[in-house]
Amino acid sequence: MNPAALRLAAELDATLLSTGGGGLLLVERITSHGLPQVAVLGRSPEDLRAPLEAAAQVQAGGLALNVVGLLAVDCDLTAALDFHCRRIGALVAALDAGLPWLGDRPMLARRLPGRIFSPTPVNLPPVAMGPLERKALAAHLPEWSEAACEATFRRPRWQSCPGGGFEADLWTGVPLPAGVVVRVSPLDLPTAAPLSDLLRRALRMTTGLPVPMLPLPGDPSPLHALRRITPDIAAFRGPVAAWEAALQGMAALPAPPHFCARC
Length: 263
Description:
Distance between the termini: 28 Å
Order of helices and strands: HEEEHEHHEEEHHEEEEHEHEH
Shape: globular
Radius of gyration: 19 Å
CATH architecture of the largest domain: 3-Layer(aba) Sandwich
Strand content: 15-25%
């Protein structure tokens, strides 16, 4: 097992689950067996610190909710979650706390790009974007040039792959050209669901800032992997107080039937 992963597990008080080629760090903050459980996915250890601190605070205050932090260490997250699904157990929500926010300003994801592969670059149709979405992007990114917005959100650039061929982002609604392979499907996230509503409210309450719902660039693969274990997913990042408010709201959401490897 990777010594660095073992050290990280000790630092976070986590369990390192074997995945064959790497490891899945499982940081459990369990107060009682069978309670609703929230999974928080981090892309780095720092992504988990605020939610884990918030979990300790709300649990100490008597909130009946379990929290699990997940951190992939040199492994295929989708395969790892498939293999350890019963070990992780039933979830109220799965949150990706490590997605890159635009300008590090509070926002929630409205849709995420997928990834496509082609032996050679081909022309991609522009992404259809309504006037309200354009206006929200322009207000959120006033310093961005039109060319930068075009390359990020409307007509992504092809990037060469180490093993040959090219990859590009694929947004929802863009027709797939012949010969292009979808590696990760694009994803539309619900914008008027109970989960997104309470997350938005938690950020507004603690930051005092408006929280738009925007299309979010960046690698969507981990969020897609979380989609395999729960339909309620969202990208969320904020101060500890925002996490406390979010966890309190999630504890009131209907939970799926409980299952785990202990049962």
